[in-house]
Amino acid sequence: MAELPEFNGDQILFLQTIFNVFHTKGKWPTYDDVDRIITQKHPNFNMEAVSKNLPDGFAAGFGFDRRYDQEAFFIVPALHYCQGAEEEIADFIRVVRLCVERYDRYYSFGEQTPEKDALEFSSELLSSQLHMELLAIRRMGLLLYHEYDIVFGFYSDIEYNSWHFPLKRGTDGVSRFRGVETFEQYIEKRSLLVPPYYTGRFPLGLAQDKPVSDLTVMGLRRASTQVHVHGDQYNISGNSGDVKIKSPSTETKATKDEYRSPWVSGSFYLTVLIVVIVALVVAARLLPIYVLPIVLVGGILAVSIIGALQLRQDDRLNEDNFLKLMALSLRYLPLIKGREAKSGRKSISASVNTSAPDDKTT
Length: 362
Prior knowledge:
Elements: H1 9-25, H2 31-41, H3 47-52, H4 86-107, E1 120-122, H5 123-128, H6 134-144, E2 155-156, E3 163-166, H7 183-189, E4 212-217, E5 225-231, E6 233-238, E7 241-246, H8 248-258, H9 262-286, H10 292-313, H11 319-331, H12 333-361
Antiparallel strand pairs: 1-3, 2-3, 4-5, 5-6, 6-7
Helix pairs in contact: 4-6, 9-10, 10-11
């Protein structure tokens, strides 16, 4: 049998509780449901710690997002740890075999045009060809939703009574399960599990300190997504395209070193503000009153420029935006200069007007 991780008693209790609801109702419980059921008999049960240390796809979401209203779901390999899961396991293997048959039939047409929707798989097939009851159909839909080796997009009603999806093509798709007859064989051919601490929108810790060469990992929640790890770079592919993300193992330390503490920047700005206030007080005592607005505007502009320089030094402002900010700041310098000249002309005119009456009297 393929190797699956060993779980402790709390982890198995957690998965078994989820399975019991899934088995009887054909739906996933919420984390609130699971918490109330377990806490009745185990008051000290720490659901957050248990969830956080499970592989991705094993109801691990609560450990990273403590929302009690979200579904506590797991992927097919988790059935291995649940008592009473023989029916679900047997039904699922039958479904996998039917998927392979339908996939191979599509390619058996050769040069002929295949029938419409030949690669489409649906709940109706389980009813018509495998004669499954509605409860079993719902269970299979919930399990298939997260099996991204088989499913390439998934569409269903809210209760999973009716659902359909395109079969995934290629060597990493349905074709890998040719010849599968048992649950153990399915696990062996299925993509690897994602270890704990990689739950979320991106596998942020996947290659941290442990680079993996050309490894495909599966089980990421609620999206048809595959993550290929090449050294220190991720290639995340799915229905919406490909995304490349650099490994946090090479960026996290550099990012922490580059950014300055906000206390350092805060002290710097406080010092600048004190200097500006002192300069304004001195200017108010030494300069004419009409010059103060010009000094005030110039001081604010100077603080803005100094702030931009600080942001640029902390690498929180890219070069293009820095240059735009400087150009915008310098654009106001002629305006200040013009106001200063205008104020100067007004002062000269005022002095001439005050001296004119004296000339007439003399």
